[in-house]
Each structure stands twice: as structure tokens, then as C-alpha cells.
Write a structure and sequence with these properties.
The chain has 356 residues and is mainly alpha-helical. It is built from 14 helices and no strands. 71% of the residues lie in helices and 0% in strands.
Length: 356
């Protein structure tokens, strides 16, 4: 077996569960366009979970990929062939499934399914909205070979400058509230203004590279620095959501400090990623070989399929349990089912083209 980076396997295992907790929470309060809370207890339960998992789950996945892949060491064609085979082909398999299967349990009409099927290769179906992540990831793959030669030559100071610029762009959601929607050259005929080209999720690629190359902290320093930072920012997210829950009318406002491209999310993701790096060794243990490694290997397939499974578990638990328990029960049950199905499919002759 090729050399594994153990902490990345642990990270994928945990981050995959975090994503499912995010979506279990959303089943309670949000339908993407509006939000409401069935009770004060349910609201507190949602904020308790979401304030930790929502800002960090997606960045952790991105940073894990970047930590492994950049700078790209192979030629561009080989890189694209390997990554797109593993990521794009399974996406093309699941898009029509999300277009059609929800019709079987009454989530949409057959007329809706036909429309979804006709458009599913243009953009994700409504029931597969979590697949936005895969589109974004494919876009990042496209630029990895482009930025790799630059990263090879970049000094620590230069990389910090670009990280600082990226961090500045992630304050714009607040800046727009203060001075207006259009800033730094933006207008209706030019949405791609000054900082457009150094913003977005590509910054997480740079952050992961910076950690791998330049951050050499001891375990003691990581724990003493990152745990308090994580706790502080978790509290900020919790109280921010609570504040906006009585003032906001749209999920975008309620969730603004949970979004992945904010200084809060970046700092939380950095702290959590650093804590994962303290996991060393253990490749000879039963737990790693029989639990962690198989789940890590199956995690992409689990991500692709979990929203075909999660609503059904939620429908069961939501009638039996309070929100505090419904959320983890839904996420864990979905997680187990997704793993079993993904792992089973991966053993088929062409399984890698279905679940990655």
C-alpha cells in the first residue's frame, strides 16, 4: 500500500460526517429560500451544531485535496485524467439519479423530473443542491496546474501577502453592508472587478500549501493556540446566528457568519486543520485499517449519494425525537448507510466510475 498521510484520512472521515450534520440541520429550519424554527429548543440545537460544522466542513475537504495535490507534480494531461476520472464521471452518474429518483417518493412530479433530467448536465438538480461542491472542486482542479509553478517559486513572505489579500476579500460581505453593493470597479456590466481574481475558494488551496510548506508548529503550540481560537469563533458563530434569527428574513442573512468565505470560517478551518495534523502514525492499528481507511476511501461516494438517503432518516427520527437527537441520529444513520452502499459499489468491476 502506498504511503498514507494518516491525519488526512481521519479528516475525511470526520468532515464527511460534518457535512451530513449540516444537511440534517437544514431539514429542520431551511428550504433554501426561507427559514423557520419549530421551537426555541430546536433553534438552539441547530445553532449548537451548525456553528461548528457549517463554516468548516467544506474548507476541510478542499484543504485536504490541496495538501496532497499542489504543487502538481505530474504533467497536466495525466493530472486531469486521474482527477476527472475519479470526480467527474461519478458526478455524471449521480446527476440523473437526483433528477429522477425523488419522484419515486413524491418529492416532485414526473413533469418536474423530465425538466430536471433535461437540464441535469447543465447544473445540479434541486434535490442534489449539495453537488455545487463538486462543480466548484472541478473548477479548482482546472487551475491547480496553472498555479503550481508559481507556488514552487513563491517565498513565505510572498505567500503571506496573497493570503492577506484573499482574507481581505472575505470581508466584503460586511463591507458591502457598510458602503454599498458595488465596490472596487464592480458594476452591472463588470462583475469581475479588482479582487475577483484573488478571491473565492482558491484561497483554501493556498492556505493548505502554506501550512504544508511553512507551518512547523509543535503539538503543544497547535493545541494551545488552535483550541482557544476555535472555541472563541464557535461562540461568535453561535451568537451571530442567534442575533440574526430574530432580525433576518432570508437564510443568507441568518447564515452569513457560517459561510465558508469569511474570516471566521478561514480561521476556524485553519485551527481545525492544524489540530488534525497532530494525529500521527497508527497505520498498523485495527481501527485505522478496518474503519478509518475504508471510510476515507469511500467518502466521495458517500458525499455524492447521501442526500438520496438523508431525508428518509430525517422523516423517521423527526417524528420520534427532539431536534437535539434528531440531527445526530439522522446524520449517523445516513453516514452508515452511505458507507455500506459506497463500499459495496466500489467492489464491483466498474465501481470506481460510480463512486470514485
Amino acid at each position: 500500500m502506498k504511503q498514507r498521510i494518516v491525519f488526512l484520512d481521519w479528516l475525511r472521515v470526520i468532515a464527511c460526517l460534518m457535512v451530513m450534520i449540516v444537511h440534517a440541520c437544514e431539514c429542520i429550519y431551511s428550504n433554501d429560500y426561507t427559514f423557520s424554527f419549530p421551537s426555541e429548543s430546536a433553534k438552539n440545537a441547530i445553532f449548537f451544531y451548525q456553528s461548528f460544522v457549517r463554516p468548516t466542513a467544506v474548507p476541510l475537504f478542499l484543504m485536504a485535496s490541496a495538501f496532497l495535490l499542489i504543487p502538481v507534480k505530474t504533467d497536466t494531461i495525466q493530472f486531469f485524467k486521474k482527477r476527472f476520472t475519479r470526480v467527474l464521471i461519478p458526478l455524471l452518474v449521480f446527476l440523473p439519479l437526483y433528477a429522477v429518483l425523488p419522484t419515486l417518493w413524491g418529492a416532485q412530479t414526473w413533469a418536474d423530473a423530465v425538466q430536471e433530467l433535461l437540464h441535469c448536465y447543465i447544473n445540479f438538480p434541486v434535490s442534489g443542491s449539495h453537488l455545487w461542491f463538486v462543480y466548484m472542486l472541478l473548477g479548482l482542479y482546472l487551475i491547480m496546474p496553472v498555479i503550481s509553478p508559481w507556488l514552487d517559486k513563491l517565498s513565505r513572505k510572498e505567500e503571506l501577502i496573497y493570503l492577506g489579500i484573499w482574507l481581505f476579500t472575505c470581508t466584503f460581505y460586511r463591507l458591502r453592508q457598510l458602503i454599498g453593493d458595488n465596490i472596487f470597479g464592480e458594476c452591472w456590466w463588470n462583475p469581475n472587478a479588482t479582487f475577483y481574481y484573488v478571491s473565492g475558494f482558491a484561497g483554501y488551496l493556498l492556505l493548505a500549501h502554506y501550512i504544508r510548506v511553512h507551518v512547523k508548529w509543535s503539538k503543544k503550540k497547535i493545541v494551545s493556540s488552535c483550541l482557544p481560537l476555535l472555541a472563541l469563533l464557535y461562540a461568535v458563530c453561535f451568537f451571530s446566528a442567534n442575533y440574526y434569527s430574530t432580525r433576518a428574513t432570508a437564510p443568507a442573512v441568518l447564515e452569513q457568519d457560517w459561510q465558508n468565505l469569511t474570516p471566521i470560517a478561514i480561521s476556524m478551518s485553519f485551527a481545525l486543520f492544524m489540530l488534525f495534523t497532530t494525529i500521527k502514525g497508527g497505520t498498523d492499528s485495527w481501527l485505522y485499517h478496518k474503519v478509518i481507511l475504508p471510510i476515507s476511501t469511500a467518502s466521495y461516494g458517500m458525499y455524492l449519494m447521501h442526500m438520496l438517503i438523508l431525508p428518509h432518516w430525517f422523516g423517521l427520527y423527526n417524528t420520534l425525537l427532539p431536534a437535539w437527537l434528531t440531527i445526530p441520529a439522522t446524520a449517523i444513520s445516513t453516514y452508515i448507510c452511505s458507507f455500506v452502499i459506497s463500499w459495496t459499489i466500489s467492489k464491483l468491476p466498474f465501481g470506481k466510475y460510480i463512486v470514485g
